[in-house]
Amino acid sequence: MKKLLVRGGSGSSQLLVGESIDNLIAYIDPRRTVIVTDTTIEGLYRQRFPDCPTITIGLGEKIKTLDTVAKIYDQLVELEADRSSFILGTGGGIVCDIAGFVASTYMRGLPFGFVATTLLAQVDASVGGKNGVNFGGYKNMVGVFNQPDFVICDMTVLQSLPVREILCGFAEIIKHGAIADERMLDFLDAHQDDALRLDKAIVEYLVYRSVEIKAKVVTQDEREKGERRKLNFGHTFGHAIEKLTGIPHGEAVGIGMVLAAKLSAKMGLLHDREAARLERIIAGYGLPVRPPVDLAAMLAAIRKDKKREGDLIHFVLLETLGRARVEELSFDELQAYMSSVATN
Ligand SMILES: O=C(O)C(=O)C[C@@H](O)[C@H](O)[C@H](O)COP(=O)(O)O
Questions:
Q1: 172 lines ligand 1 (CB under 6 A)
Q2: Annotated binding site for Zn(2+)
Q3: Which of 30-39, 107-116, 130-139, 175-184 has the lowest mean pLDDT?
Q4: Predicted ipTM?
Q5: Residue-wise pLDDT tens digits, 260-313
Q6: Among the three residues 130, 160, 190, which one is the final residue of a domain in this structure?
Q7: For 40-77, what is each residue's pLDDT tens digit?
Q8: In this model, does residue 342 exceed pLDDT 80?
Q9: Does some domain include residue 344?
Q10: Which terminus of the chain has a lower count of CB atoms within 10 Å, N or C?
Q11: How far, in Å, from the CA of 127 to the mean position of ligand 1?
């Protein structure tokens, strides 16, 4: 097991890559813990959870709402959870986002930790202290920055994931390579088959390296005033596509990264050959690369993005593979560049 640390304003978070869920008891006091999980994880791992009260929520992005949050508050009241309680979010990104938000707001905040059970949650969603829910159909519109005490990433639980879910995790891994480490892209290229069959050593390296990149950025800029914006590479188009089509987050981010790389090339930053290479890597990991909706619809959805300030949007571009930069673009500029970018 390898440990990393995220230092944030609200405290530090220990990231435990390769730790087993069977050692959970070393990190919590079961008498004070309430587990928040979903029906799939409860079915698969209930026997391995410590004996604690458990709140089980449904599945899918549609339940990531304030209604679900309110239902969890009701159950916490029922369980007489108080300020000495501890919330353990056990599941994928949706469970972690909701559980972290509930823990951060119930009685003005309880301590919490995560067991991240999907590849996407291990490399991204559970790390960095962004906890929140969707509102009005728009992604993560209501939330807080608040670090979990710990995140456990147990590699063995990944074996039970559906293929489509695993591929979504690879989208965020590729993103970390694209913004911060070209050698990681080389590695992803060279070890594609082993990575896709979840070879333990290969995947553990990719999870560790992703978390290392993310932990460094978040420690520098927890509240996303500058450097952290780069972690949103591919997410401006990605969130728009996710809202418009309902396809899974990682798939939408894969398409969003292809579009952002093409935009970077159109703006004279990234070489066309590099944009094409990134697209090839994304496609090689079984992810879609063409937007299933037209540009006008995506731009309309982007107008509601959190990164918009007036008529400007902070857009993450690539200068080269492994190096990102954030530019303020007006919607007119974005439309002008994108209308000459091939999207089919
Ligand atoms: O942690 C971050 O910061 C990120 O932007 C990582 C993203 O991959 C992640 O999906 C994040 O939750 C998106 O945040 P949002 O603020 O754009 O909703």
A1: yes
A2: 172, 235, 249
A3: 130-139
A4: 0.97
A5: 999 999 999 999 999 999 999 999 999 999 999 999 999 999 998 888 888 899
A6: 160
A7: 999 999 999 999 999 999 999 999 999 999 999 999 99
A8: no
A9: no
A10: C
A11: 10
Domain for residue 176, yes or no? Answer: yes
Same domain, 195 and 83: no
Ligand 1 atom closest to 307 (CA): 17
Same-domain status, 143 and 13: yes
Q: Which residues pair with 320 in a beta bridge?
A: 323
Q: Are 125 and 96 in contact (CB under 8 A)?
A: yes
Residues 192 and 313 placed together within one structural domain of the fold? yes
**Mutation probe of ligand 1 site: the residue of 119, 135, 231 with most atoms within 8 A of C-beta:** 231
Indicate whether 152 and 180 sit together in one domain.
no
| Alpha carbon of 230 to ligand 1 centroid (Å) | 9
Question: Among the three residues 98, 129, 160, which one is the final residue of a domain in this structure?
Answer: 160
273: tokens are 């050959």
316-323 average pLDDT score:
98
Compute the distance from residue 256 Cα to the ligand 1 centre, in Å.
13
Torsion of CA 326, 328, 334, 336, to 10 degrees: -120
Band the pLDDT of 343: cuts 50, 70, 90.
low
Query: Which domain does 262 fall in, by range?
Result: 163-339
Are 119 and 38 within one domain?
yes
Ligand 1 lined by 306 (C-beta under 6 Å): yes
Contact 132, 141 (CB under 8 A): yes
Task: Give Cα 74 to chain centroid, integer Å.
Answer: 27
Long-range CB pairs of 297-303 (<8 Å, 24+ gap) are 297/240, 297/244, 298/237, 298/240, 298/241, 298/244, 299/240, 299/331, 299/334, 299/335, 299/338, 301/239, 301/240, 301/243, 301/244, 302/236, 302/237, 302/239, 302/240, 302/331, 302/334, 303/331
Residue 338 confidence (pLDDT):
87
Predicted confidence band of residue 112 (pLDDT cuts 50, 70, 90): very high
Answer yes or no: is the C-beta of 81 below 6 A from any ligand 1 atom.
Answer: no
Give binding residues for NAD(+) as ranges. 117-118, 130, 139
